[in-house]
UniProtKB/TrEMBL annotation:
Organism: Halpernia humi
GO cellular component term of the entry, any: nucleoid
NCBIfam families xrefs: ssb
Pfam families in alphabetical order: SSB (PF00436)
Listed name of the protein: Single-stranded DNA-binding protein
SUBUNIT field: Homotetramer.
HAMAP family per the UniProt record, alphabetical: SSB
Length: 109
């Protein structure tokens, strides 16, 4: 059995795509909201939203830049990636990102 780091998400972008240009290409970053619903103990339907940080490079970054706007519904597949870094004050920070390998544009927006 092969164990793989793979994630599939469908949701809406929470902001405009941020583009970072490098000598050999570009990187696109955007947040994605996914929602689940459940019924609480009082019988009320409750919506629970999770936010995911997407990181996209290569040709997919070009597609994100051109076609993805705030509120756009998209489907992505990729890998979970954990990073640590120091902020400007020297405090160690942790980041969880989804490195996107596949992108499907959904909806009309």
């Amino acid at each position: 059995m092969s164990l793989r780091n793979k994630v599939s998400l469908i949701g809406r972008t929470g902001k405009e795509v941020e583009i970072i240009n490098f000598e050999k290409g570009k990187l696109a970053k955007v947040s994605l909201a996914t929602s689940d619903f459940y019924t609480n103990a009082l019988g009320e339907k409750v919506e629970e939203t999770q936010w995911h940080n997407l990181v996209v490079n290569g040709k997919l970054a070009d597609i994100m830049e051109k076609y993805v706007t705030k509120g756009k519904e998209i489907a992505v597949e990729g890998k979970i990636q954990y990073r640590t870094y120091e902020d400007k004050e020297g405090i160690k920070r942790y980041s969880t990102e989804i490195r996107v390998d596949e992108l499907v544009l959904l909806g009309a927006k």
